[in-house]
C-alpha cells in the first residue's frame, strides 16, 4: 500500500511521540496533546478515531505502572456510570454546538486549574462517597460522547480527592481503557474507521510505543505532590489547547 501524499508525516509522528510520552508519564492527556498537532493537518473524521485508538494503546502499554490492585468498589461507580454517559453524550451532541462546548471547557480549565496551581494547598473533597464518584464518571462519559473529553473531569476529581498517585492512576487507567474501547466500537459500528484510518494507525502506533514506555518509566520518580501539580498543569495546558483550536472556528462564523 502506498502512502497517502496528503498525510503530513511530521505532525502525525510528532503528535504520536509527544502525546505518548505525556500519557505514559501522567496516565492521561494523549488526545489533547496529540490533537494540538493533528487538528491542523488531519480531518476530524480521521483525527478523532486515531486519537481514541492511540489513547487505548497507550493506556494498555502503561498498565505496567499500576502497582496495586484496583478495589472494585472504587472503580465500579466510574466505569458503570461512564458507560451510561457516553451514549447520552452522543445524543446531546445532536443539539449542542461542539465548538462552543470545547471553548467553554477550555476556559474553565485554564481559569480553575491555574487558580489551583497558585494555591499554597490544594483543596480536598472528602464527601459524596461512591455516589459522587458515579456522578463524575457519568459526566466524563457524557463529555466523551460529546467531544472526546472523557478524562478531564474524572482526572481533576481524583486529584482533588487527594488520592495518592498510584491509586489515582490505577482507577483512571481502567476507566479510560473501558471508555476508549466503547468509543472505538461505536466508531466501527458507524463505519467511521476506513482503510485510510487503518493506514494512519499503522504509522502513529509504532511511533508512540517507545515514548509511552519512556514516560511510564519516568512516572516512578514522581512524588505524589509533583504528580498532582503535573496533572493540574496538563489540564490547564489542555484548556489552552482547546481555546486555541476553537477560537479560529468561532471567528470564522
TrEMBL record:
Q: Name one GO cellular component term.
A: plasma membrane
What name does UniProt use for this protein?
Answer: Probable membrane transporter protein
Q: Which PANTHER family match?
A: MEMBRANE TRANSPORTER PROTEIN, TRANSMEMBRANE PROTEIN YFCA
Query: Which keywords describe this protein according to UniProt?
Result: Cell membrane, Membrane, Transmembrane, Transmembrane helix, Transport
Q: What's one Pfam family the UniProt record gives for this protein?
A: TauE
InterPro entries under this entry? TM_pro_TauE-like, TSUP
What does the UniProt entry say about where the protein is found? Cell membrane
Family affiliation: Belongs to the 4-toluene sulfonate uptake permease (TSUP) (TC 2.A.102) family.
Bilayer topology reads: Multi-pass membrane protein
- Predominant location category: membrane
Span-the-membrane segments of this chain are 12-40, 46-63, 75-93, 99-122, 134-157, 169-188, 200-219, 231-252
Amino acid at each position: 500500500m502506498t502512502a497517502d501524499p496528503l498525510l503530513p508525516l511530521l505532525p502525525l509522528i510528532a503528535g504520536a511521540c509527544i502525546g505518548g510520552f505525556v500519557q505514559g508519564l501522567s496516565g492521561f492527556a494523549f488526545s489533547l496533546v496529540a490533537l494540538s498537532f493533528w487538528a491542523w493537518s488531519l480531518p476530524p473524521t480521521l483525527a478523532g478515531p486515531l486519537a481514541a485508538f492511540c489513547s487505548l494503546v497507550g493506556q494498555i502499554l502503561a498498565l505496567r505502572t499500576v502497582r496495586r490492585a484496583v478495589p472494585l468498589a472504587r472503580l465500579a461507580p466510574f466505569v458503570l456510570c461512564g458507560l451510561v454517559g457516553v451514549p447520552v453524550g452522543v445524543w446531546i451532541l445532536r443539539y449542542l454546538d461542539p465548538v462552543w462546548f470545547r471553548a467553554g471547557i477550555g476556559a474553565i480549565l485554564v481559569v480553575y486549574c491555574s487558580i489551583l496551581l497558585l494555591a499554597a494547598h490544594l483543596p480536598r473533597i472528602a464527601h459524596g462517597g461512591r455516589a459522587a464518584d458515579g456522578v463524575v464518571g457519568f459526566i466524563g462519559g457524557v463529555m466523551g460522547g460529546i467531544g472526546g473529553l472523557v478524562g478531564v473531569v474524572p482526572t481533576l476529581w481524583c486529584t482533588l480527592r487527594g488520592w495518592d498517585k498510584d491509586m489515582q492512576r490505577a482507577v483512571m487507567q481502567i476507566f479510560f481503557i473501558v471508555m476508549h474501547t466503547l468509543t472505538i466500537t461505536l466508531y466501527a459500528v458507524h463505519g467511521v474507521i476506513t482503510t485510510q484510518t487503518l493506514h494512519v494507525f499503522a504509522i502513529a502506533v509504532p511511533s508512540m510505543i517507545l515514548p509511552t514506555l519512556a514516560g511510564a518509566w519516568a512516572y516512578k520518580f514522581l512524588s505524589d505532590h509533583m504528580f498532582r501539580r503535573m496533572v493540574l498543569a496538563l489540564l490547564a495546558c489542555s484548556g489552552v489547547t482547546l481555546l486555541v483550536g476553537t477560537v479560529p472556528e468561532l471567528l470564522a462564523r
